[in-house]
Amino acid sequence: MTLLKSWVESANTSETDFPLNNLPYGVFSTDGTARCGVAIGDQILDLTALEAEGALTLEGGALLQSGVWNDVMSAGPIVWAALRDQLQQGLTAGAAQEAAFAAHLVAQADVTMHMPFTVAEYTDFYAGKNHAINVGSMFRDPANALPPNWLSIPIGYNGRASSVVVSGTDVVRPNGQLKGPNDELPRFAACARFDLELEMGAIVGQPSDGMVSVQQADDMIFGYVLLNDWSARDIQAWEYQPLGPFQAKATATSISPWIVTKAALEPFRTSTPERERPQLAYLTEPGPMLYDIDLEVGLAPDGQNESIIARTNYNEMYYSAAQQLCHHTTSGCSMRTGDLLGSGTISGAEKENRGSMLELSWGGKEPMTLATGETRSFLEDGDTLTLRGAAKGDGYRVGFGECTGTVLPAPAVPDWAK
Amino acid sequence: MTLLKSWVESANTSETDFPLNNLPYGVFSTDGTARCGVAIGDQILDLTALEAEGALTLEGGALLQSGVWNDVMSAGPIVWAALRDQLQQGLTAGAAQEAAFAAHLVAQADVTMHMPFTVAEYTDFYAGKNHAINVGSMFRDPANALPPNWLSIPIGYNGRASSVVVSGTDVVRPNGQLKGPNDELPRFAACARFDLELEMGAIVGQPSDGMVSVQQADDMIFGYVLLNDWSARDIQAWEYQPLGPFQAKATATSISPWIVTKAALEPFRTSTPERERPQLAYLTEPGPMLYDIDLEVGLAPDGQNESIIARTNYNEMYYSAAQQLCHHTTSGCSMRTGDLLGSGTISGAEKENRGSMLELSWGGKEPMTLATGETRSFLEDGDTLTLRGAAKGDGYRVGFGECTGTVLPAPAVPDWAK
């Protein structure tokens, strides 16, 4: 596929994240009222307005008036395809709808972005093999870094949906219980090893009741976002045995404001790697279910230039989101519109491909040097982190925009907690 | 306190779970429409009807018309107290409201009960010391059964809200990945070690943003339910390292249909046990925050008589729900109306006080003999499990009704999963 031409001129370049090939969905406001929109070049088309005036009609009635995408997600794949068709036709160069649509373009520079959907529940996986090996080596035993179940199970745990925020939301460093290996007792203090996790998030559009196959799971997915699962490594190290991470992962999870649909990503499907161990039949993929998406992480100290601290690709995952979602339903667990699945941290083979500072600085033993000359083992207050991602086509890209957040100092510990 | 007399005669006995002292909230239907009600003796007072005709008025408008209790929960403690006052006055023997209220009584025997509230998110804790020691001895190392952090942290993990069901809902045995200690590879098959967990659930009524104290946490709690966290022990054993239980806990969590309010439980407050290790200041309780509630578990094989397989008390917990909720907010995690916190399995000191079959049969090594003569290590298809609980006053009890569920056979493994 090559670049599709739009009458929105800014969409017709190889640099924009949002050509006509993409058409990602988000929620924006100019006056405080959240509206559904689609990104095209450096503009947003106001779909709430278009639907209200009848220039856009969807089976099942008004689906774009609630200020989140959940109504469209619930409506299912036929509606998803119909909406994309109408938008792609209306935004194509020479389209008859140009005048009607152009009246509802808003510059991206002039809007505030909001959460694109209401998160039902949030599950985070651990499906990056390099990440699992790196973390296993540091937290447990380098000789047996990969847990015994890892090659058989897409390991996941339930996260906290109330902590999911949209890109641009500041992230307050957490307090928590900390205990060094030589401390007799823990203390309650600010996290000193605050970290990012570079992930992709898959959004469940269609619900399920009972076990689904990998193909059915893929069909249920509405689209993908960039996802940063902020992590307090020192809180995690002390709390996570035996029942997994809890408060270490409950401060914030940031997502990109744009949901890139499965349809836009179709040309970029790729396969998960060959299995080292026979895989249980239920996890077999009927076709390629991962995506070739270049990813990078930028870190800008307070008011200074950004350094790119990691580059990797979503194709590093060992399990696809479809496999994860299928596994999620094995026990009979119902899935719902708005469930969000984090892929797990995406780390490549080399040091510069690692998707967390824990790995990049090897637990703080090998601090990074930034372009500013400063060093970092973990995040400092004032640091702004930005994830970026794009699938690269022939003369075009399908991008996610930015997933960014600035670290603010921890709250003062209240007197009653001292 | 002694028994308060009502004009509803069935409420004036020492045997009923629902005297005027209690007034628990639930959701029922007679014709398919879910309505909010309060239990009194063997009757339910239809509060949705009373509010609709103006015989009951609450600050903030119609709060009892949505078929769940979330609107009342959101309205806060002043409304909670005002509602209880109106109900207690109107149901007291000799009340002027008798005729108006009596027109809206429905026999409990004639209704279907529904989920009393919409669960926002579900967190399960691990705060019973005997349970933690028993499980640690079986799954890990008997010499170091209690994890190093256990005496400092109310250990918890996020569960799956979509799996929470009301008492009376059948529970389908899950399939999942199973691997015996001597198997080379896992297989996908029906769980063979399906279990209960006897717990109490605390319901968050008021939201929070940022860390709260134990007292603030207690103030946020709307009430309590009985809770059975159905658990697949064989799935759990293979999946839970390193990130905690996932599909083993995602089949179902049953709750009692009646929410017993904090106000009804006030006379039964009791303290958590003395700490063996200095406790961090933030977890200090300003007063007694546990409750003295007798609990029991009955098991009835398909169509046969029930045996009581365990008796214990909520006062066996090491951490109160208020402490757990406080800890839940330490990282800045927002809590929401409708969050449900499971206490963790409640096991007493003796074998007959253990709140799970894993403990009662010591991992299957010591099967129980039921009154029917059958033996059990774990649950069999057709078994009906029933949790019961009541705080005991002077000539009255504040009970929760029953939390029950019948185990149905696992779904056939689909061909594509074989």
TrEMBL record, chains A, B:
Domain of life the protein comes from: Bacteria
Fumarylacetoacetase N-terminal domain boundaries: 21-116
EC number assigned by the record: 3.7.1.2
Enzyme class: hydrolase
Binding site for Ca(2+): D124, E197, E199, D229
GO biological process: homogentisate catabolic process; L-phenylalanine catabolic process; L-tyrosine catabolic process
Every Fumarylacetoacetase-like C-terminal domain range: 123-407
Annotated GO MF terms: fumarylacetoacetase activity; metal ion binding
Entry annotation: catalytic residues: H131 (proton acceptor)
InterPro entries per the UniProt record, alphabetical: Fumarylacetoacetase (IPR005959), Fumarylacetoacetase-like_C (IPR011234), Fumarylacetoacetase_C_sf (IPR036663), Fumarylacetoacetase_N (IPR015377), Fumarylacetoacetase_N_sf (IPR036462)
Pfam family, one: FAA_hydrolase_N
UniProt xrefs under SUPFAM superfamilies: FAH, Fumarylacetoacetate hydrolase, FAH, N-terminal domain
Pathway the protein contributes to: Amino-acid degradation; L-phenylalanine degradation; acetoacetate and fumarate from L-phenylalanine: step 6/6
Chain residues that bind substrate: Y126, R140, Q236, Y240, T345
Protein keywords: Calcium, Hydrolase, Magnesium, Metal-binding, Phenylalanine catabolism, Tyrosine catabolism
Binding site for Mg(2+): D229, K249, T253
Cofactor requirement: Mg(2+); Ca(2+)
NCBIfam families assigned to the protein according to its UniProt record, in alphabetical order: fum_ac_acetase
PANTHER family registered for this protein in UniProt: FUMARYLACETOACETASE
Protein name per the record: fumarylacetoacetase
